[in-house]
Amino acid sequence: MPGHRSTRELQNLEVAAANGLLHRRAFLTSGAAFAAAVTGYTLADTVGAQELTDAPWSRKQGTLVQGYGAPSSYEKHVARTLSNPKGEPRTQHGRTPHHLLHGTITPNALHFVISHSGDPDIDPAQHKLAIHGLVRRPLVFTLDTLARYPMVSRMAFVECGGNSAPLFSNEPLQASIQAIHGLISCSEWTGVMLSTLLEETGIDPKAKWVVAEGADSLALSRSVPIAKALDDAMVALYQNGERIMPGNGYPMRLLLPGWEGNMNVKYLRRLKLVDQPAMTYYEARTYTAILPGGKAYQFYFVQEVKSFITHPSPGLRLSGPGFYEISGIAYSGNGRIAKVMVSADGGRTWAQAALQEPVLPKAFTRFRVPWRWDGGPVVLQSRAWDEGGNAQPTRAELVARRGQTPKPVTNPLAFPGTHYNGPSSWAVDKAGEVRNVYA
Amino acid sequence: MSTRETAFTIHEPQSPRDTEAIKRKSLCFGVSVARGSAIVLALATLTSSVALAQGQIGTPAAPNLGTPASEAEIAAWDISILPDGTGLPPGSGTPEQGGKIFATKCALCHGPEAKGGTAAALIGGRPLTDGIDTPKTIANFWPYATTLFDFTRRAMPWQAPRTLTNEEVYALTAYLLSLNKIIGPSDVMNAQTLPNVRMPNRDGFIPRFPERMP
Questions:
Q1: Is there a contact between A217 and B79 if contact means CB atoms under 8 Å apart?
Q2: Are A67 and A410 contacting, i.e. CB atoms less than 8 angstroms apart?
Q3: What is the CATH number of domain A128-290?
């Protein structure tokens, strides 16, 4: 029972906030006491102590090494959830299981995918990228030629503009964190800076936007301000060291660090420099946000500062009172995370979380707080601040500005709004069950 | 050798264009007259290991490996339509023509008379003040009629995108605009008339971060 081990040592540690939140440096000052106290979140009942024996797998030869590895057969539940597994003629969503992952890098096979018409099966030898429009000379690049350009690697999250949308419901909807926050992932992306390619095409001073288009059946298209294209936009070729997964844009995608996922056009085949936004379907309609008065935000661009606790979270269960590490993800499309605060009493008292180094701009920052759960009901919540001084709003602040649905949302896969960056509040009851609540 | 391993293989010139590209590249690294100062800057940047480590490779490094192409060569891919009408092709269509095309090519998913089926209805729409989750429709939301032409041409029909003729796309656009009472039942849509259609919700938008708008 991992939850029971270190209670005595823990009692000597500084309490940082109500309901058992401990000082974030507890591990540093008293590390040995915690060495055995790994996190105790479970998906099933914990097996009790028993006499140690040599297991069968320790007494025979193991399996063959595979050419391309796959996780342990015991990890099959660690998978994306699929909204449209039969591929009916509508969008497919695959959501990342954040409650079953740790660290800051999303494995490629678990990176979230939104595929509006399926993933095209692109022959990389025949794929081309054309850059044209208001340029000095239009150019066409093959994958081979792009692979010879100076490359850059950077960590960056990609987040769907509709991630966390269930939290716009006027009453808390019960769903796993995978349903609520599964449309964001973080990878190391490697590719050619778009500015490098635009240097070669030249830019007509009249160009204000770049219209990006994919080679998928919808030829999905979005308009990007030229300033972003010249700032940190990348034509990404690799994801966590390997070629980009088909669902994430193989063989190349536009990467706009920190900006709305849909703008990071997958299967990138064309960039046209123009003097006005194209008002494509996805920017004129889908990724807009209706406001309470009936007007709508458009060109939201930035995925604003946000955080959520992944451990524990809906989808996990606590196995009993005692020690746990609260852990979660914070990020901001405006830069680095500066601070994350965690509450165990629904936002009345707060403890500052430890941030895992390195804290990188526009990338996941893992935060952690040691916690001694006394077994009573608590409400866990996190809030983040970024280096630009932007604060993750309280839910009340967000609702005052952005509104909430007039009726409760019942379908966790629906998108009642876009760009929710308020907090998530997880209530833990006496049985260790975790539920989504508003606090 | 696999095409996926060519980044570090020797590039054999295969066409006059390739040869030209390599010549340009040689010129660049020989500090050409045309781009002299920029190239000097590039070389200085490239020799700085600190800059390399931080990913700040100077943009004028100019590998120059892209193949020059004329707009005529790119034309078949260039399907972008801008709100002012830029990119709209020749052709025209009426609501009546569009209704017939809709029945055969669109109603399977969008339902008869666009009232909805497995895919969304394309007619009507509630006031946006009904709530932040009000379905966004052509009638209550779309700010530009050109978007309708652009999306229909690039993405529809679902099973066979980019098979509609420009005439058919104009006709379907006219049909949907007429169905939603945005244009009259006999109005003709073409490259001149479509950009002039005033959508009801044209002024219903606010940029989230005005300072980031070009």
A1: no
A2: no
A3: 3.90.420.10
